[in-house]
Design a protein that fits this description.
By secondary structure, this protein is of the alpha+beta class. Helices cover 32% and strands 28% of the residues.
Protein backbone atom coordinates (compact mmCIF):
# COMPACT_ATOMS: atom_id res chain seq x y z
CA UNK A 1 0.00 0.00 0.00
CA UNK A 2 1.43 3.39 -1.00
CA UNK A 3 0.78 6.84 0.46
CA UNK A 4 -1.12 8.11 -2.58
CA UNK A 5 -4.76 9.19 -2.52
CA UNK A 6 -7.32 10.61 -4.94
CA UNK A 7 -8.69 14.15 -4.86
CA UNK A 8 -12.01 14.08 -6.77
CA UNK A 9 -14.15 17.03 -7.83
CA UNK A 10 -16.81 17.78 -10.43
CA UNK A 11 -19.00 20.61 -11.68
CA UNK A 12 -22.02 20.77 -13.99
CA UNK A 13 -24.01 23.44 -15.79
CA UNK A 14 -27.52 22.83 -17.13
CA UNK A 15 -28.85 23.25 -20.65
CA UNK A 16 -30.33 26.74 -20.85
CA UNK A 17 -33.92 26.76 -19.61
CA UNK A 18 -33.64 23.40 -17.82
CA UNK A 19 -33.86 23.01 -14.05
CA UNK A 20 -32.38 19.50 -14.01
CA UNK A 21 -28.98 18.46 -15.36
CA UNK A 22 -28.91 15.60 -17.86
CA UNK A 23 -25.44 14.59 -16.65
CA UNK A 24 -24.77 12.77 -13.38
CA UNK A 25 -21.65 11.89 -11.41
CA UNK A 26 -21.65 9.13 -8.80
CA UNK A 27 -18.75 8.30 -6.47
CA UNK A 28 -18.74 5.12 -4.39
CA UNK A 29 -16.08 3.77 -2.02
CA UNK A 30 -16.77 0.06 -1.44
CA UNK A 31 -13.77 0.00 0.92
CA UNK A 32 -10.93 2.34 1.87
CA UNK A 33 -8.71 0.96 -0.92
CA UNK A 34 -11.19 1.24 -3.79
CA UNK A 35 -13.13 4.08 -5.41
CA UNK A 36 -15.57 3.95 -8.33
CA UNK A 37 -16.35 7.21 -10.20
CA UNK A 38 -19.04 7.23 -12.90
CA UNK A 39 -19.85 10.20 -15.16
CA UNK A 40 -22.98 9.57 -17.22
CA UNK A 41 -24.61 11.75 -19.89
CA UNK A 42 -28.30 11.03 -20.50
CA UNK A 43 -29.80 11.33 -23.96
CA UNK A 44 -31.05 14.87 -24.64
CA UNK A 45 -31.59 17.21 -21.70
CA UNK A 46 -34.02 17.91 -18.88
CA UNK A 47 -35.99 15.38 -16.82
CA UNK A 48 -35.60 12.40 -19.20
CA UNK A 49 -31.84 12.87 -19.50
CA UNK A 50 -31.51 13.33 -15.75
CA UNK A 51 -33.33 10.04 -15.07
CA UNK A 52 -31.26 8.17 -17.68
CA UNK A 53 -27.91 9.45 -16.43
CA UNK A 54 -28.78 8.94 -12.74
CA UNK A 55 -29.94 5.36 -13.35
CA UNK A 56 -26.83 4.58 -15.39
CA UNK A 57 -24.45 6.03 -12.78
CA UNK A 58 -26.18 4.27 -9.88
CA UNK A 59 -26.25 0.88 -11.61
CA UNK A 60 -22.60 1.01 -12.65
CA UNK A 61 -21.25 2.37 -9.38
CA UNK A 62 -23.22 -0.14 -7.29
CA UNK A 63 -22.43 -3.21 -9.43
CA UNK A 64 -18.74 -2.41 -10.00
CA UNK A 65 -18.30 -1.62 -6.31
CA UNK A 66 -19.73 -5.08 -5.57
CA UNK A 67 -17.06 -6.62 -7.82
CA UNK A 68 -19.35 -7.72 -10.67
CA UNK A 69 -17.88 -8.09 -14.21
CA UNK A 70 -18.13 -5.18 -16.66
CA UNK A 71 -20.14 -7.29 -19.11
CA UNK A 72 -22.85 -7.86 -16.48
CA UNK A 73 -22.95 -4.13 -15.68
CA UNK A 74 -23.38 -3.09 -19.33
CA UNK A 75 -26.06 -5.77 -19.81
CA UNK A 76 -27.93 -4.51 -16.73
CA UNK A 77 -27.82 -0.93 -17.99
CA UNK A 78 -29.04 -1.93 -21.45
CA UNK A 79 -32.00 -3.85 -20.00
CA UNK A 80 -32.92 -1.26 -17.36
CA UNK A 81 -32.98 2.02 -19.27
CA UNK A 82 -36.21 2.89 -21.12
CA UNK A 83 -36.22 3.42 -24.88
CA UNK A 84 -36.57 6.98 -26.16
CA UNK A 85 -39.80 7.14 -28.23
CA UNK A 86 -38.35 9.84 -30.52
CA UNK A 87 -34.86 8.51 -31.24
CA UNK A 88 -35.53 4.83 -30.63
CA UNK A 89 -32.37 4.39 -28.54
CA UNK A 90 -32.05 3.68 -24.84
CA UNK A 91 -28.69 4.58 -23.47
CA UNK A 92 -26.62 7.02 -21.55
CA UNK A 93 -23.00 7.53 -22.47
CA UNK A 94 -20.59 6.95 -19.62
CA UNK A 95 -17.03 7.21 -18.36
CA UNK A 96 -15.97 5.03 -15.44
CA UNK A 97 -12.79 5.40 -13.38
CA UNK A 98 -12.17 2.55 -10.93
CA UNK A 99 -9.24 3.30 -8.60
CA UNK A 100 -7.78 0.19 -6.95
CA UNK A 101 -5.45 0.34 -3.92
CA UNK A 102 -4.29 3.79 -5.07
CA UNK A 103 -2.03 1.87 -7.47
CA UNK A 104 -4.04 1.35 -10.66
CA UNK A 105 -6.93 2.99 -12.48
CA UNK A 106 -9.27 0.96 -14.65
CA UNK A 107 -10.91 3.27 -17.21
CA UNK A 108 -14.07 2.27 -19.09
CA UNK A 109 -15.51 4.61 -21.73
CA UNK A 110 -18.58 4.56 -23.93
CA UNK A 111 -19.37 7.42 -26.33
CA UNK A 112 -18.32 10.25 -23.97
CA UNK A 113 -15.44 12.52 -25.04
CA UNK A 114 -12.28 10.52 -24.45
CA UNK A 115 -10.85 10.93 -20.96
CA UNK A 116 -7.76 13.14 -20.75
CA UNK A 117 -4.75 12.15 -18.63
CA UNK A 118 -2.26 14.87 -17.73
CA UNK A 119 1.03 13.35 -16.53
CA UNK A 120 4.16 15.37 -15.77
CA UNK A 121 2.04 18.43 -16.66
CA UNK A 122 1.60 17.22 -20.26
CA UNK A 123 -1.05 15.18 -22.09
CA UNK A 124 -0.31 11.45 -21.82
CA UNK A 125 -1.53 9.09 -24.54
CA UNK A 126 -2.57 6.10 -22.45
CA UNK A 127 -3.27 2.66 -24.00
CA UNK A 128 -6.84 1.68 -24.91
CA UNK A 129 -8.35 -1.71 -25.72
CA UNK A 130 -11.52 -1.78 -27.83
CA UNK A 131 -14.19 -4.24 -26.66
CA UNK A 132 -17.65 -5.13 -27.97
CA UNK A 133 -20.20 -5.73 -25.23
CA UNK A 134 -23.86 -6.11 -26.14
CA UNK A 135 -23.24 -4.45 -29.51
CA UNK A 136 -21.64 -1.42 -27.88
CA UNK A 137 -18.04 -0.32 -28.55
CA UNK A 138 -16.37 0.04 -25.17
CA UNK A 139 -12.86 1.41 -24.59
CA UNK A 140 -10.98 -0.06 -21.64
CA UNK A 141 -7.65 1.05 -20.17
CA UNK A 142 -5.61 -0.05 -17.15
CA UNK A 143 -3.15 2.61 -15.97
CA UNK A 144 -0.57 2.46 -13.17
CA UNK A 145 -1.01 5.56 -11.04
CA UNK A 146 1.71 8.14 -10.42
CA UNK A 147 1.80 11.11 -8.11
CA UNK A 148 0.32 14.26 -9.73
CA UNK A 149 -1.57 12.32 -12.43
CA UNK A 150 -4.69 14.27 -13.41
CA UNK A 151 -7.68 12.52 -15.03
CA UNK A 152 -10.31 14.72 -16.74
CA UNK A 153 -13.64 13.11 -17.69
CA UNK A 154 -16.26 15.16 -19.56
CA UNK A 155 -19.72 15.02 -21.03
CA UNK A 156 -20.01 16.16 -24.66
CA UNK A 157 -21.32 19.55 -23.52
CA UNK A 158 -17.69 20.57 -22.90
CA UNK A 159 -16.22 20.06 -26.41
CA UNK A 160 -19.50 21.37 -27.91
CA UNK A 161 -19.05 24.70 -26.10
CA UNK A 162 -18.84 27.70 -28.39
CA UNK A 163 -20.16 26.00 -31.56
CA UNK A 164 -21.19 28.73 -33.98
CA UNK A 165 -20.05 31.39 -31.49
CA UNK A 166 -16.43 31.42 -30.31
CA UNK A 167 -15.58 28.41 -32.52
CA UNK A 168 -17.02 26.95 -35.71
CA UNK A 169 -16.77 23.37 -34.47
CA UNK A 170 -16.75 23.78 -30.71
CA UNK A 171 -13.97 23.71 -28.15
CA UNK A 172 -11.81 20.89 -29.50
CA UNK A 173 -10.29 18.24 -27.23
CA UNK A 174 -6.83 19.55 -28.11
CA UNK A 175 -7.85 23.03 -26.91
CA UNK A 176 -9.21 21.60 -23.65
CA UNK A 177 -5.93 19.73 -23.17
CA UNK A 178 -3.96 22.98 -23.68
CA UNK A 179 -6.24 24.74 -21.18
CA UNK A 180 -5.77 22.03 -18.52
CA UNK A 181 -2.01 21.74 -19.11
CA UNK A 182 -1.60 25.39 -18.15
CA UNK A 183 -3.48 24.75 -14.87
CA UNK A 184 -1.74 21.47 -13.97
CA UNK A 185 1.39 22.97 -12.31
CA UNK A 186 -0.54 25.44 -10.11
CA UNK A 187 -1.77 22.90 -7.55
CA UNK A 188 -5.50 23.63 -7.63
CA UNK A 189 -7.89 21.09 -6.09
CA UNK A 190 -9.83 18.74 -8.35
CA UNK A 191 -13.04 20.63 -7.56
CA UNK A 192 -11.48 23.97 -8.50
CA UNK A 193 -10.02 22.53 -11.72
CA UNK A 194 -13.42 21.10 -12.70
CA UNK A 195 -15.05 24.44 -11.85
CA UNK A 196 -12.56 26.43 -13.94
CA UNK A 197 -13.08 24.09 -16.92
CA UNK A 198 -16.88 24.25 -16.75
CA UNK A 199 -16.82 28.02 -16.13
CA UNK A 200 -14.80 28.39 -19.34
CA UNK A 201 -17.41 26.28 -21.17
CA UNK A 202 -20.12 28.55 -19.76
CA UNK A 203 -18.24 31.58 -21.12
CA UNK A 204 -17.96 29.99 -24.57
CA UNK A 205 -21.70 29.27 -24.53
CA UNK A 206 -22.31 32.96 -23.77
CA UNK A 207 -23.83 31.87 -20.42
CA UNK A 208 -26.67 30.15 -22.32
CA UNK A 209 -25.46 26.53 -22.60
CA UNK A 210 -26.80 24.62 -25.59
CA UNK A 211 -26.16 21.36 -23.73
CA UNK A 212 -25.54 20.10 -20.21
CA UNK A 213 -21.80 20.28 -19.53
CA UNK A 214 -20.00 18.34 -16.79
CA UNK A 215 -16.34 17.88 -15.93
CA UNK A 216 -14.99 15.47 -13.33
CA UNK A 217 -11.33 15.77 -12.32
CA UNK A 218 -9.32 13.20 -10.34
CA UNK A 219 -5.92 14.26 -8.98
CA UNK A 220 -3.54 11.63 -7.60
CA UNK A 221 -1.52 13.06 -4.71
CA UNK A 222 0.33 12.13 -1.54
CA UNK A 223 -1.51 12.09 1.78
CA UNK A 224 -1.07 15.30 3.76
CA UNK A 225 -1.98 15.40 7.48
CA UNK A 226 -3.33 18.60 9.07
CA UNK A 227 -4.18 19.42 12.70
CA UNK A 228 -6.66 22.02 13.95
CA UNK A 229 -7.06 23.13 17.58
CA UNK A 230 -10.34 24.88 18.43
CA UNK A 231 -11.21 25.99 21.95
CA UNK A 232 -9.68 25.39 25.41
CA UNK A 233 -10.39 22.11 27.29
CA UNK A 234 -13.34 21.83 29.68
CA UNK A 235 -10.94 20.94 32.50
CA UNK A 236 -8.00 23.36 32.76
CA UNK A 237 -5.79 20.53 34.02
CA UNK A 238 -6.15 18.86 30.60
CA UNK A 239 -4.54 21.80 28.76
CA UNK A 240 -0.99 20.38 28.71
CA UNK A 241 -2.21 16.92 27.63
CA UNK A 242 -4.31 18.48 24.85
CA UNK A 243 -1.37 20.59 23.65
CA UNK A 244 1.03 17.67 23.84
CA UNK A 245 -1.20 15.47 21.70
CA UNK A 246 -1.86 18.30 19.24
CA UNK A 247 1.76 19.34 18.68
CA UNK A 248 3.08 15.76 18.58
CA UNK A 249 1.06 15.02 15.43
CA UNK A 250 2.78 15.19 12.04
CA UNK A 251 1.64 17.87 9.59
CA UNK A 252 0.73 21.54 9.82
CA UNK A 253 -0.89 23.03 12.92
CA UNK A 254 -3.77 25.54 12.97
CA UNK A 255 -4.88 27.17 16.25
CA UNK A 256 -8.30 28.86 16.38
CA UNK A 257 -9.54 31.09 19.20
CA UNK A 258 -8.11 33.81 21.44
CA UNK A 259 -7.93 31.82 24.69
CA UNK A 260 -6.79 28.73 22.79
CA UNK A 261 -3.91 30.58 21.15
CA UNK A 262 -2.83 32.00 24.53
CA UNK A 263 -2.70 28.47 25.97
CA UNK A 264 -0.73 27.26 22.92
CA UNK A 265 1.74 30.16 23.21
CA UNK A 266 2.26 29.44 26.92
CA UNK A 267 2.79 25.72 26.24
CA UNK A 268 5.38 26.47 23.54
CA UNK A 269 6.99 29.23 25.58
CA UNK A 270 6.69 31.63 22.64
CA UNK A 271 5.07 35.11 22.40
CA UNK A 272 1.65 35.59 20.76
CA UNK A 273 1.79 38.45 18.25
CA UNK A 274 -1.32 39.95 16.63
CA UNK A 275 -1.23 40.77 12.91
CA UNK A 276 -3.27 43.85 12.05
CA UNK A 277 -5.25 43.53 8.84
CA UNK A 278 -7.74 46.24 7.99
CA UNK A 279 -8.58 44.80 4.54
CA UNK A 280 -11.02 42.23 5.92
CA UNK A 281 -14.18 42.36 8.02
CA UNK A 282 -13.08 39.15 9.77
CA UNK A 283 -11.02 39.24 13.00
CA UNK A 284 -7.26 39.49 12.38
CA UNK A 285 -4.85 36.55 12.51
CA UNK A 286 -1.86 36.22 14.84
CA UNK A 287 1.55 34.54 15.00
CA UNK A 288 3.15 32.00 17.33
CA UNK A 289 6.52 30.50 16.49
CA UNK A 290 5.95 26.78 15.83
CA UNK A 291 2.33 27.24 14.68
CA UNK A 292 1.48 27.47 10.98
CA UNK A 293 -1.68 29.59 11.38
CA UNK A 294 -3.33 31.35 14.34
CA UNK A 295 -6.84 32.78 13.95
CA UNK A 296 -9.86 33.94 15.93
CA UNK A 297 -12.39 31.21 16.75
CA UNK A 298 -16.14 31.10 16.13
CA UNK A 299 -16.57 33.97 13.64
CA UNK A 300 -13.68 32.74 11.50
CA UNK A 301 -14.79 29.10 11.63
CA UNK A 302 -18.34 30.07 10.70
CA UNK A 303 -16.96 31.63 7.51
CA UNK A 304 -14.93 28.47 6.79
CA UNK A 305 -18.12 26.38 7.09
CA UNK A 306 -19.85 28.77 4.66
CA UNK A 307 -16.99 28.34 2.18
CA UNK A 308 -17.04 24.55 2.65
CA UNK A 309 -20.77 24.27 1.89
CA UNK A 310 -20.36 26.41 -1.23
CA UNK A 311 -17.32 24.36 -2.29
CA UNK A 312 -19.46 21.22 -2.32
CA UNK A 313 -22.15 23.03 -4.32
CA UNK A 314 -21.65 25.72 -6.93
CA UNK A 315 -18.11 26.61 -5.74
CA UNK A 316 -18.73 30.26 -6.64
CA UNK A 317 -16.60 31.57 -3.77
CA UNK A 318 -13.40 29.76 -4.77
CA UNK A 319 -11.84 32.92 -6.21
CA UNK A 320 -12.54 34.65 -2.89
CA UNK A 321 -10.97 32.17 -0.46
CA UNK A 322 -8.19 31.15 -2.85
CA UNK A 323 -6.86 34.73 -3.03
CA UNK A 324 -7.59 36.49 0.27
CA UNK A 325 -5.28 36.60 3.29
CA UNK A 326 -7.84 36.61 6.11
CA UNK A 327 -7.98 33.72 8.59
CA UNK A 328 -11.00 31.96 7.05
CA UNK A 329 -9.47 32.02 3.56
CA UNK A 330 -6.15 30.66 4.82
CA UNK A 331 -7.87 27.87 6.78
CA UNK A 332 -9.96 27.03 3.69
CA UNK A 333 -6.87 26.73 1.50
CA UNK A 334 -5.14 24.50 4.04
CA UNK A 335 -8.15 22.22 4.64
CA UNK A 336 -9.68 22.13 1.15
CA UNK A 337 -6.54 22.16 -1.00
CA UNK A 338 -3.62 20.78 1.02
CA UNK A 339 -4.99 18.42 3.66
CA UNK A 340 -6.08 14.82 3.10
CA UNK A 341 -6.19 13.68 6.76
CA UNK A 342 -7.46 16.21 9.31
CA UNK A 343 -7.31 15.86 13.10
CA UNK A 344 -9.59 18.18 15.11
CA UNK A 345 -8.76 18.86 18.75
CA UNK A 346 -11.86 20.52 20.18
CA UNK A 347 -12.06 22.04 23.66
CA UNK A 348 -15.44 21.95 25.39
CA UNK A 349 -14.84 24.87 27.78
CA UNK A 350 -17.63 27.45 27.81
CA UNK A 351 -16.39 30.94 26.99
CA UNK A 352 -17.98 33.47 29.41
CA UNK A 353 -17.85 36.09 26.65
CA UNK A 354 -20.24 33.96 24.62
CA UNK A 355 -22.91 33.87 27.33
CA UNK A 356 -24.15 37.38 26.55
CA UNK A 357 -27.76 36.81 25.34
CA UNK A 358 -27.30 39.64 22.82
CA UNK A 359 -24.52 37.72 21.06
CA UNK A 360 -25.48 35.04 18.48
CA UNK A 361 -22.74 32.73 19.81
CA UNK A 362 -23.07 29.93 22.32
CA UNK A 363 -21.50 26.60 23.18
CA UNK A 364 -23.88 24.62 20.95
CA UNK A 365 -23.06 26.78 17.93
CA UNK A 366 -19.35 26.07 18.46
CA UNK A 367 -19.95 22.30 18.55
CA UNK A 368 -22.25 22.53 15.53
CA UNK A 369 -19.55 24.33 13.57
CA UNK A 370 -17.16 21.44 14.17
CA UNK A 371 -19.80 18.87 13.19
CA UNK A 372 -20.81 20.77 10.03
CA UNK A 373 -17.23 21.35 8.94
CA UNK A 374 -16.31 17.71 9.61
CA UNK A 375 -19.28 16.55 7.54
CA UNK A 376 -18.34 18.84 4.63
CA UNK A 377 -14.70 17.74 4.71
CA UNK A 378 -15.73 14.07 4.67
CA UNK A 379 -17.86 14.79 1.59
CA UNK A 380 -14.71 16.27 0.03
CA UNK A 381 -13.05 12.88 0.56
CA UNK A 382 -10.95 13.85 3.59
CA UNK A 383 -10.26 11.49 6.47
CA UNK A 384 -11.46 13.17 9.67
CA UNK A 385 -10.79 12.44 13.32
CA UNK A 386 -12.34 14.60 16.06
CA UNK A 387 -11.06 14.47 19.67
CA UNK A 388 -12.92 16.36 22.40
CA UNK A 389 -11.35 17.67 25.63
Amino acid sequence: MNDLCADIGYKSINHVGEQLCGDHVDIVEPDENSTVIVLSDGLGSGVKASILSTLTSKIFSTMLAAGLPLEDCVEAVAQTLPVCSVRGVAYSTFTIIHLKNNETAEIIQYDNPQLILIRNEKNFDYPKIEMNIGGKKILKSVISLRENDMFIAMSDGCPHAGIGMAYNFGWKREDIIDFMETLAPVGYTAKTLATMLVDECDELYGHAPGDDATACVVRIRKREPMNLLFGPPFNRDDADRMMSLFFSKAGKHIVCGGTTSSIAAKYLGKPLRAKLDFSSDLPPTAEIEGVDLVTEGVITMNKVVEYAKDYLGENKFYEEWSMKRDGASQISRLLFEEATDINFYVGRAINPAHQNPELPINFNIKMNLVEELSKCLREMGKRIKVSYF
